[in-house]
Amino acid sequence: xxxxxxxxxxxxxxxxxxxxxxxxxxxxxxxxxxxxxxxxxxxxxxxxxxxxxxxxxxxxxxxxxxxxxxxxxxxxxxxxxxxxxxxxxxxxxxxxxxxxxxxxxxxxxxxxxxxxxxxxxxxxxxxxxxxxxxxxxxxxxxxxxxxxxxxxxxxxxxxxxxxxxxxxxxxxxxxxxxxxxxxxxxxxxxxxxxxxxxxxxxxxxxxxxxxxxxx
Length: 215
Known about the structure:
By secondary structure, the chain is an all-beta fold. Helix content is about 0%, strand content about 45%. The protein has strands at about 25, 30, 45, 60, 65, 75-80, 90, 95, 100-110, 110-115, 125-130, 135, 140-150, 155-160, 165-170, 175-185, 190-195, 200-210. The strands form 5 sheets. Strands 7, 8, 11, 12, 13, 14 and 16 form a 7-stranded antiparallel β-sheet that branches.
């Protein structure tokens, strides 16, 4: 820099030596490294406009969700006809295809119906669970409904009910989620039902990307 009387002055900047200081001297001048922020699936980054001061970066989360429907609408019945504790798919409940990898909250409820004929001294129960890619998801099991009747002039009875479960699971994009159920007891009938009196359904809500871990 030229000064009075033709003298030349050199200005050496004084830089704070703190390691968090992004301003660094180089042979060609002062340098402030640029920042590039990468977004994983489901997370969006909006950069500030040129000239903004301060520069505000916006981070957003696209929390995907998916849900099943009972087909055919508006409702119906799936009779459970297999052996005790042998799962069968409730095919009336549409399959959920997970659209994005990550941690999902899955919530489901099932309306179960059991019937015992008169003078029956036995029990009937409905248990349901969620399957992922054809395999049971451990922890999703729920005793939906059931009744056990004893013998005698005034029979004793026991009823059980859960209704459904809510749980967390890690999925890959394209994983298939299906509802399965089984019966316990062969003296009467057991069914999964969905109509205006009570719905059966599955819902899944994306919470975070793959790699999230529980606290």
